[in-house]
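Q: I have 1340 residues here and want to know how they pack in 3D. Can you give me a structure?
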Amino acid sequence: MPTPESAHAAANATFATGTGPIGNSQKLDTATRSHHVGETLTKEASILIHTDPPTLLNALMNLSRAYQGQPPPARDPDSPGLPPPTRELVTRSVKGARAITSSVRLGLGGKTNFSHDFEVMAVSPLSVCFRRHPDAAPAPHDASGTLTMVGAEHNTTRLSMAAQMAAAGEGAPSSTNVPASKEAHALLDNLLQLLPALFAMFNRSGEVDEAVLGQLTERFLTASTQPSADEAALLDKARAYNDKAWKRLKGSVWEPVEKWRASAGETSAWGKAVGSVDAAAARVLAYLWYYESYERKNKNNADLIRLGIEIPNSHSMFQLVELNIGAGQKRFYASKWTWCRESSGDFIAALTSVQDLPEGEEKAAILTTIEKNKSSDAVIVSQSRGLYRISSLAENVCRVTLVAQGTIGGWVPDQAMKFLIRSTLGIVEDTRDKYERNGKVVDAELRSEFPPPPLLDQLNGEQMRIAQKCLAMETGSAGVEWTPLKSTSPFVAFSMQYTKPERNQPSVALGMAKATLDCSATEAFAYQFAVCGREKMRISKEGEDLARFVLKERAAHDFELASVKKMPFPLTNREFLTRYLSFKEPTGDLVVVFEALPDTTKVDYGANLKVVRAKSTGIVRFKPINGDAQCEVTQIQHGEFGGLVSDRVVVAKIPQAVRGVSVMRERFQRDDEVDGAKRSELAGIIESNNEIYTDVENSVVDRVRDQLDSIPDSSFEKLESPDHLVHMEGFHKGGKNGVPRASTVVDEDICTYVSKMRKRFDKSPAIDLASSLRLVAMIQNHDAPYTEKEEEILRTGVSHISMFEAQKGTELKMASPSTKAKIAYEKGSSFAFGYATTTVRASPEEVLADQWDLLNRAGRAADDLEKCVDEEPSGHNKLIYIRKKTPDAFDNRDFLSRVIWMATPSGFVNVTNAEESARRPHLKGVVRGKYPSILKVTAAGNGQTKLEYVIQPDFGGSMPAWAMKFYMSSNLSEVTKIQVTMQARRGLENWDDEDGKATAEILVTKTDAEKHHGREESEVEARVRAIMETHEGLRELGEKHGWFEVLLTKVVANKLRPAGDSRAKLCNMSEKEAKVIGGALASCIAANLTASAAVDEWMLRYPAMGELEREYVWFRPMMDTIAQRLLESVSWGLKMRLYVGASLSTMDLLSDLYMIYTAATISFDFDIMALAASLVSTHVYYASDPDEPVMEEGLAWTIMGSLSASWLSFFAAFLLLMKRPYLVTFFSTQTGYQYVQSKFLREGDENKKAVFKYNKKQWLSIRADVKAWTTENWELWEEEQPSWFNENFKASVDDDMIPAESLRKMNGGSQRRRSSLGDLLGAGAGGAKVAPVGGGGGDE
């Protein structure tokens, strides 16, 4: 038996010479080699484990635990009847300080069991040997080997494992003492599964990647050495790659990364990509350089090999990658990367193909490495070359430019070449996506580092000409007045100068906009000059502009911009080509001027856009005011719209042309902050009381005060208030308005202003919360005794709840789906009892405190005329008085009630009982009602509380049944109001999945806010707005994501329309994208059978929603609940599906009965679910309590019973008429998938080949077996040429199921159909990829 030492030595010798094939699992960073010499098979693998050697050694001593993290090996296909492989820990013992023994029994498909001993041989590096257990008898399958551990950086360990065993040569049969090669390979592969299992146990991929990236970043920033002469030559050669005639790729004009191409022959192409990345330049270079990162390997786990080889003491490294590009073909890319930092601060990295390197030892060594690492001699070595330039724009923002050439070998169609270019340049997009941050934050960082503009007298001749031309526009046209225009903002003033053009001349107009911005002139200037900033690009794209990009950058403050504006039909789209220039005047004003480029300027948009050239010339001046805390901005713009445009259109477009001022005003508005500072200043003046008033001022104040005081209270009449917390009265002298003696109009508009002012400073939620917390403390510490009368009131109230436990009652339809309610009558009583129950997210003490605080802000209703506490003898007893306004047809009502609460073992009860008091006599025109009720509050666990609410309102006097039912439902909704109030107080940090469900129920329930919605908002918008304002958690989320309210509004509105596309990430969502995404849920609900499936599709389609799901645990449950409620409620939802399903099932039933009647001897396919679907549909319909059922429920069930009886009768006749041999097929449980797969399991090639006639999905689970059958027998079929082995059969077999040599012959001899373009580019089963520059994977 080979010793462990001989195995390790043989492995080292084998791998040093590079013989034997290589396998690679890039996802786990493990490489496997095997070598077969004589009757000895050796295998070795290595892997980086993310822990230190001592910890790893301890894990090795408990191998059963390690192996448990890895799935067991595949079953031996040659012995399907044997049990699967096994792994178990047998014994473990300690033999001293340096010797630990752990025995593990591994079984291979039940054929054999063997054991290994592990003992420590050394400490540094640690070596562990394994061999046959001493107690076990020698066997042919004995294996031995070593594990070597070497400590590495970042608290990791390089673990290498070498194992060997006796094995027959390749293709030789096994003997008594030597197993077959295939069996030995499987056994050693089983052993090597230890490495990925250990990797999974200690996986810290993200942490290790971050540590390496940080180390590389520091290295690039602090490197003191310069590239060598050879490296400098490679860099110089790469710098010239950009000097080409570039053509923009179609469709890339609005992509975040711009792309171009340049032809380089039939087998390769040059591509160029430019994009900004939200990270430091050195960090981006580190990400590109760190080729073997776990993140990129996991993303490109189809790569056959992916290696980065650092060259010590240099600025270079080699990157190697082997790709499977489909159709059985592979490509190997190897390139040398060389980096440097230029004097400008830019980082550049040159990518040189190995074939381009000068002859020498380095090139010879890397070519040898390539040959050693190629998976086969048939792999083609392709070339790639390119250049990265990484320019810093801000501390954490840079611009990445990639110029690259990629090849895949052989002739490639033009469309495939374009795909190759995009794939090659994809690494820039991937890098941008990885580091993408919020666009507004990035723009602010860029503005903070924006270089100061040159002074006016520092401009060159051409620049001075443009500046003087634009400065002259500030004086306007001589003799033409500025005409004010209607403004969309009260803070922005628009005006224009317009001269009617001569006949057949283009229209020309001069527009002006002025505003004050709440920011410094420097910040506003930087915002204006960054015409392609993230925010401006978003606004332009949402405005449906067809293009917007920098055409040419002449200097930091001098560039050319191309943009195409979409015009309304029938106007043609307008193209604007403009040169922008900025400078600073001696006065300190910052100025931006712009002028149209010459008509001869041509632009490549990557597409043929039909446009008319328009021209724009103007000036934007930023004047600092208030010590540069604010600035005054003035924009004057001269526009020529091109073509013959009517005067009306020209005038209408002027405000749009200068709308940039409005955008800036909105962008930098700090109204609350500015107003707050002014209020604080005025408050200080008022509080100081040091103001001196003149005699006239004092006389005016005294006269107004006397006049107001002289008006008696009885002269004021109550006005209807839009705010139930504001009491409004007015004094009407006569006519339309009332004029008090101070001559001030006192009408509803003034009162509305008071209401708005109250809302402006409203702190009701905070006040109510503080009061509730105080009452919670009181309740928890309450120990006052109860009187006999109080206990009697409590007993009577509790008995009302037990009444509902004894009788069913009539269900009431409530606005909230989470609230269940019913109504019942007590024998002998003319008034009904109402019962409602729900669950709230609060403790019992919090619920009781909210109910006990009878005068809190949230509890005040719009119909409350008076509400007060008359007496409070104890902390658990109150006498309250409430006067309510009723509809005009009824007298107003008032209620006088005693309220008492008491603690119970599981919560509390709160009882209200009618009472009379001399302090509250009956009022004229007001009917005294009674409102006995009980609220039972019970802890339900998991932070929830169950509410049970029983009422028996006696409104006094007579009341029709419909009014009684209406008021009963309205008053039972009190539990829903409690649920909403408690949920509104929960902060976002406390939310879980139950909060998501509760919030969903609130969002789909109608509220009072919808009754007072404004003219410009819908009922749903008013509801969502009110909920967002009052719910603490949603308010916090709305502050973080300003678009969230828009998203919820569109979701709840549930309007069915075509779904739009949005690939925006969460950090860069806008309100427009929120509208698109929110509105798309309805179409997903319509297209799926269940609400959950609809939400799945919605979140997969829109990445931002997937990010929300990962960030907030409550988001998915909330969306599932909303979708379910919407599906239940809409006309095209669940009910319609049930009705249609029932109708179709019934029609199917009738058609089958007709077929039996007309052709009783034929066989047919009968859907047994028809009857069940009809019965279920009928039950669901009547269980939903329809307001106007199509027929009586009893009649419906009579019809269904008759149809069911007929169905059973004809079905029995059908069975009797069926041919006896086919009865078994009718009741068979075999599925279509099982039927197809059973054909392959039969003996004989004639039977097995039949699977290719069926859909491949039907035999996907046995595809590996089918592949093994075809690859093993293909050469035999080619020799024997059975009749079925024809071109049709060959065409139905996938490429990867045909031996490589046979496939190559078929393709070379045109014996096989040409692959489609998708297969050529890797879209087929082979998972092909197009190679990136530098040998990157699919992420490039």
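Q: Anything worth noting?
A: The chain has a mean pLDDT of 77. The first helix runs from residue 4 to 17.
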